[in-house]
Structures are given as C-alpha cells and as structure tokens.
Amino acid sequence: MLDLSQLIQQKNILLAVFGGAAVASFAVWVMSRRKRQKTEYELVGEVTALHCYPVKSLTGISHNVGFCTFSGIRTMNAVDRQFVIVRHNGDFITQRQVPRMVAIKTKCEGDYLHFQADGMPDIKVPLNPKEDKAAIRSCRVWQDQTLAQDCGEEISQWLSEFLQETSLRLLVVTPVIKNRSCKVNSATGKDTLLFQDEGPYLLATEESLADLLEKIDSPAREEINMSNFRPNIVIRCSKGPWDEDNWSHILIGKNLKMRVLAPMGRCVLTTVNSKTLKRREDGEPLKTLRRLPTFAVCGLGERPHQPMVRWHEG
Ligand SMILES: *[C@@H]1O[C@H](CO)[C@@H](O)[C@H](O)[C@H]1NC(C)=O
Ligand SMILES: *[C@@H]1O[C@H](CO)[C@@H](O)[C@H](O)[C@H]1NC(C)=O
Ligand SMILES: *[C@@H]1O[C@H](CO)[C@@H](O)[C@H](O)[C@H]1NC(C)=O
C-alpha cells in the first residue's frame, strides 16, 4: 500500500496510473430513506471538494485532504469552527450581522492560522495555544452558553479595526474545554460540536447547486456559487439534484460512515455578496431556495480519523 502523503504529492502521476481505483476509493455511497431495504448502500457519486472553516463565518480553507473528527473536519492542523469571534458581551457574530466577515481570508501554516484582509497587515494566531486559565471567557453561540480561550489583544484589535466594531475578541476551543452537544433530534449524547451551527459536517451536491442556480431568474445567478453555502464536503451526485433529501446514511470510500442528521436551515448568510461585502438586495439565493427542496444536509461522523482525499480540482 502507498503511504498517504506520497499519494498526495504524486497525485497527478498516480491518477494517471491508478486513476480508476483511486476514484472508487473515495466514492460516495448512501442509504436512502426511500429504499425498502434500509441496510443497503447505493453508489451515488464522488467527493469533489473539502472545505474547513477554522473560524466561524470567515472564509475557509480548501484542501484535497481532510481528517474526520467527531467534532468536524480537520484540514492541515485546523479543525472546522474551532474559533469564533464574539462581541464584548460574549455574543458570537457571523456574516448575518457583519457581512464584512466574508472579506477575511484564513490560511493554515504549520501550527498557525493566518488572517488576511485588504489594507490590513497579515496576522497569525496559534492553532493550539498554551492553556491559560486566566484567558477563559464565557460566550454564547445560539442558545448555548459555553467557554473558550481568548486569543489575545493583537488579533482582537485587528478584527475590531477591519470589521469596524469595538472590542471584538477571537476565542478558541482548547482540549480542556467541554465541546457543545449537538441539539438536533437524531443526535445522541456522544455527538459534539465546536462552533458549528447544527451538525459537525455540512454536505452539499454540485447538482443541487446547479439546479438552484438555473432557477434563479436574475443576474444573481452569475454571482452565487458553492462558497455562499459553506459546505465541508462537496459531492458530485450521479442521481441528479435533490437526491440528498432522501439520504439517511453516507459512506465515503471504504471507512468513513456518516449519519444524516437533518436538512440544513436556510439563512440570510447565503445572501452575503463577497464583492460588495453586503447582503444582496434581491435576497438571492434564499428567495429561490424557499421554493425548492432542501439544499444541503448536515451529518455526523460515525468513525472518526479516517483520511479522505479529493481527486478533482474544482
Ligand atoms: C472536543 O473536540 C475536539 C476536536 O474534535 C477533540 O479533540 C476533543 O477531544 C473534544 N473534547 C471533548 C471533551 O469531547
Ligand atoms: C465563488 O465566487 C467567489 C467570488 O467570485 C470566489 O472568490 C470563490 O472562489 C468562488 N468559490 C467557488 C467554490 O467557486
Ligand atoms: C424522496 O422520497 C420521496 C418519498 O419516497 C419521493 O417522493 C421523492 O421523489 C424522493 N426524492 C428524490 C429526489 O428522489
């Protein structure tokens, strides 16, 4: 067997030689609710992109390798939504209230997360900061009152300046902090979240996005893409659009099993325009989405720490 890192470095060569087998190993299979025999997986497509958003509501990192933990996808050394930005009273903020957040890019290098935005100096914070009991603060994410460690003054000033609000703070989950529990009905006590909204993974298919865009009857169609929806795992589905509405279990490659938790709530965050840094006045894609089946599903990993590779640049 080939070592994974070798596989990644030599991706192009390997694809040419072992293409068929490699693609098959990251195929996506699902159990459908509509099937009578619920224990049978059927092949529905393949993984085409992986995205990790280390800071809730900032631009994420796309990479062709991800590790699945119970609390979300890990890309390089960053875990999905391990950071959150809060106001001085501890309330979380997202692009819903602060659309300018869409203009902050993040990049992972070694043990640091770098922040970049136009007109601002680059700045970095450690992904695994030293435990500091004195820096633990309480914060609120939706209904959850939780704790997280403050990342310090420098990043606080940087974020406050760029986002034009006083006293914003960046908080991070550290190993001593209890993870949030997942509130969706089908979740069990073992299912945990960092700062994600509903489930540790969000999945979307290219076909449903294409169908949605086709139905948007305005220039918005040219400006909306997968980034508006912030999925972690993008799937090319051979069964056509909206097939995911009937999925109950997902198997990726040979080992990664997920349970579908719920359809993802649609929200105004999808209407933030990354060029104007404002919410779209035409209300798209939300306006059209309201007339259609659910666009994305959130899932729970059943077996963590299985590596996944994406093979198609997209
Ligand atoms: C919380 O989530 C992190 C990241 O997935 C994990 O490493 C840690 O073990 C979890 N902590 C608890 C208490 O479950
Ligand atoms: C979506 O469009 C934005 C702005 O045009 C671009 O920066 C981003 O890379 C695109 N995302 C995807 C997934 O194509
Ligand atoms: C999902 O299942 C329902 C009920 O069985 C069916 O009516 C619907 O067509 C299915 N949707 C898709 C996209 O297959």
Biggest sheet details: 7 strands, mixed, barrel
Taking strands numbered 1, 2, ... along the chain, how are they ordered across the largest sheet?
Answer: 1-2-17-16-22-19-18
Report helical residue fraction: 10-25%
Q: Sketch the topology as an H/E string, one letter per element.
A: HHEEEEEEEEEEEEHEEEEHHEEEEEHEE
**Outline, from the CA principal axes?**
globular
Q: What value does the Rg take, in angstroms?
A: 19 Å
Task: Report strand %.
Answer: 25-35%
Determine the number of helices (DSSP H or I, runs of at least 4 residues): 6
Describe the oligomeric state of these chains in a short phrase.
single chain
List the ions, cofactors and other small molecules found in this model: 2-acetamido-2-deoxy-beta-D-glucopyranose
Q: Which structural category do the helix and sheet elements fall into?
A: alpha+beta
Protein model, in words:
This protein is an alpha+beta fold and 314 residues long. The two termini are 27 Å apart. It has one domain (4-8, 23-310). The chain has a seven-stranded mixed β-barrel. A four-stranded antiparallel β-sheet has the order 6-5-4-23, with no helix packed on it. A four-stranded antiparallel β-sheet has the order 7-13-12-11. The protein has helices spanning 4-9, 11-25, 153-163, 206-215, 220-223, 286-289, and strands spanning 27-32, 42-52, 61-62, 65-69, 72-75, 78-79, 83-86, 105-109, 112-116, 123-126, 136-141, 144-150, 169-172, 180-181, 192-193, 201-205, 233-237, 247-252, 256-263, 272-273, 278-279, 296-301, 307-309. It is built from six helices and 23 strands. The radius of gyration is 19 Å and the shape is globular. A hairpin with a 6-residue loop joins strand 9 (112-116) and strand 10 (123-126).
